[in-house]
Amino acid sequence: MLTISTVNVNGLRAAARKGYAQWLAGTGADVVCLQEVRAEPDQIPGEVREPAGWHALYAPAAARGRAGVAVLTRREPERVQVGFGVTEFTDSGRYLEVDLPGLTVASLYLPSGEVGTERQEEKERFMAAFLPYLVSLRERAAAAGREVLVCGDWNIAHREADLKNWKANRKSSGFLPEERAWLDRVFGEAGYADVVRRLHPGQEGPYSWWSYRGRAFDNDAGWRIDYHVATGPLAERAVKAYVERPASHAERWSDHAPVTAVFDV
Fold it and tell me: Residue 214 — pLDDT band, cuts 50, 70, 90?
């Protein structure tokens, strides 16, 4: 079995103080993908930056204090790649890819966007560039007899079942028709599958992000925006997928919760 977790830590140093370090010490995952690390590696305490028993790879953003992704693996990766070949996003701290035997795993932090702003334009440029890369990645992996798993915060709720208050968010970034149509293409022509939804068809959620405002967490008024996006044969081997939702608001160490998938490989 291969177990892989992904979580937006909302600042690794703060998360480590609140409970991330304890979670990592207790996880049975073989690979952990992190997003919104926010800190340069040299700013992270050593025991958090290089946890015992893990090979930790980081792709910080050139803009300090923003974005940043990481991949932690029990086994030393065969290859590491930062970015996906588009200059604008190479140093943006949004994509890190590693090769393990027979599998390419990537940590993705897709821009969040905001309607009517430059942030939304950036998100649209990222999506336009990333889709053809996903296609080429799948094709190259297939030619080499490999599978692909892109984990992370995709910042788009694909269907109405993927966010509690979908009616109020039809004109919000993260649930715009064009964003959802783009995910249709990822799960269609690009040849990938949504692992969690495949194992939980017809279910509301399971949500992975809840705003810190109000009582969103207590009321489970969340969004499902953290995905395991896999090539078809790998998705078919997924036997379990779940959100590691904290038992209470006080136990949260991020506004996201880890999403974990188990594959019979």
Answer: confident
Specify the CATH number for the domain of residue 125. 3.60.10.10
Domain residue limits at 224: 2-263
Q: Residue 241: which region, alpha, beta or left (left: phi > 0; alpha: psi -120 to 50)?
A: beta
Calculate mean pLDDT across residues 118-144.
Answer: 97
Known active-site residue 153: yes
2 and 265 in contact (C-beta within 8 Å)?
Answer: yes
Residue tagged 């188990």 (tokens): 262
In the set 153, 162, 194, 255, the catalytic residue is 153
Please state whether beta strands 31-35 and 69-73 pair in parallel, antiparallel, or not at all (unpaired): antiparallel
Q: Tell if the pTM clears 0.85, that is, is over it.
A: yes
For 232, residues 6+ apart whose C-beta sits below 8 A from its C-beta are: 191, 192, 193
Bridge partners, 58 (sequence order): 70
CB 264 within 8 A of CB 239: yes
- Across residues 99-112, what is the average pLDDT? 97
Count of domains for the chain: 1
3-state secondary structure 40-103: CHHHCCHHHHCCCCCEEEEECECCCCCCCEEEEECCCCCEEEECCCCHHHHCECCEEEEEECCE
**Whole-angstrom distance, CA of residue 74 vs CA of residue 173:** 36
For the chain, what percent of residues have pLDDT higher than 90? 95
Sign for the CA dihedral angle at 180, 182, 185, 191 comes to negative
How much is the average pLDDT of 152-159? 98
d(CA 260, CA 265): 15
Rounded-to-integer distance, Cα 120 and Cα 17, Å: 32
Is residue 203 within 8 A of residue 134, CB to CB? The reply is no
